[in-house]
Each structure stands twice: as structure tokens, then as C-alpha cells.
């Protein structure tokens, strides 16, 4: 009978930058890279391609970049942009602002994050329901950033959460848009809302910044996923 070799150990799955050092893991270990759709194997000193993953199905999400706040002035996304994707989904997870009664803002960059556009070309609208049954709205016309949430409470137990789609970033003909659900607490109530934003520039956008209208982002994480093309 032919001897069966030892099966390789799967070390994990994740983005390329999270792959451990080849010399820090045992020979034969595998790492599934969602950035490049490859499975790498280590020989104890370096990584080589072991297998190619199948193509993503339409609508599948691939984690591209993530940042966690720690009294951070901004969270900047500068490496996610790729011609592979048309749409990008940003997941805001338990984000807490340091200063009370502020807006969560978003700005765009066309130069890879060297500068962020703060001219009056952003338009945004928010409509939501508060836990007392009343409605809440916010409109921001010709402002220096998209306003994603308003009058946010800075209690450490009250975080912002949302799933926002950014579209037409690569287009040189269309305005850029953001839309999606967002939930947070304002000064008095829990708010469940939908936000829609339009940026009137037509230059391709390749970096995105999140910040508060005043003070820092105390804690929490934002992740961006590429949505596979049809």
C-alpha cells in the first residue's frame, strides 16, 4: 500500500497583509489569500503559490482593507481601490466618537490619499426612525464632506454601525455616490436610518477618509470589501 503523506495545515484565511511570516510557521503550512485569490504554501523560509482559488461569483465580497480607531483623527483607506471591482461595501463596526453631539463625516480623494477633497461639492440626505417612533432627518447641501450620521452620542457603550455601498468611484463621467443603512444613538434616542450621498466631481476616486466633525474616533473598526463584478 502506498503511504499517505501528512496533510498540510491550513493556517488561516485573510487579506495578503495579514499573512504570517513564512519563517514563523511550520513547513507545509497553507494560507488562503483573499486579496489575490491564491493559496500559498511555506517551505519554512518563503511562500510559494500552492493553488489558485476559483473566480468569485457575482455579488461575492472580498475583504480589501480595514482600520481600527484608537483616538484617531481619521481612518484613511488608501490601498483598497482596484479595477477588479465596481462597487465597494464599507462595514462600520462599533465605531465610537470621542466628542459628544458630532457628525460622522466622509471625504474622498483623487490622488491616493495625499489630499482629501473638502470643497462644497458633497450632498447628503438621511432619513430615519427613532426608538420613540418619531422620525429624524438631515440634509447637507454643498458641504465639505458627506454627513453619514448626525448629533452622535459619544458614550462608549453607544456605537455607530452601518453597511454603506460606494459606487462609480472609477468613473470619469459619473458623480460618486454612497448609500445604505446606518444605526447610532443621538443625544436622546436610538436611530435607525438610511443615508444617501452624492459627490459632484467626475475625477476617479481612489481613497476615502472617515472622521468626526469635531474630536477623534475613539474606537471601533471600519472594513471595506470589494463586490465582485457580474
Structure, explained:
The chain has 230 residues and is mainly β. The chain has two domains: 10-52; 61-228, Jelly Rolls, CATH 2.60.120. It is built from no helices and 16 strands. The protein has strands at residues 10-14, 30-33, 38-42, 47-52, 61-72, 75-77, 85-97, 102-109, 122-130, 135-143, 146-152, 160-167, 176-185, 190-199, 207-212, 217-228. The strands form three sheets. It has an eight-stranded antiparallel beta sheet, with no helix packed on it. The protein is globular. The model is unreliable at 1-6 (pLDDT under 50).
Quick take:
The protein has 230 residues and is mainly beta. Helices cover 0% and strands 55% of the residues.
Supply the number of helical segments. Answer: 0
CATH class of the largest domain equals Mainly Beta
How is the biggest beta sheet arranged? 8 strands, antiparallel
Radius of gyration: 21 Å
Q: Tell me, briefly, the overall form.
A: globular
CATH topology of the largest domain, by name, is: Jelly Rolls
Helix vs. strand class = mainly beta
Uncertain residue segments: 1-6
Percentage beta strand: over 45%
Overall pLDDT score: 88
Q: Termini separation (Å)?
A: 47 Å
How many beta-strand runs? 16
Number of domains: 2
Helix and strand run: EEEEEEEEEEEEEEEE
Bin the helical content: under 10%
Strands of the widest sheet, in order across it, are 5-16-7-12-13-14-9-10
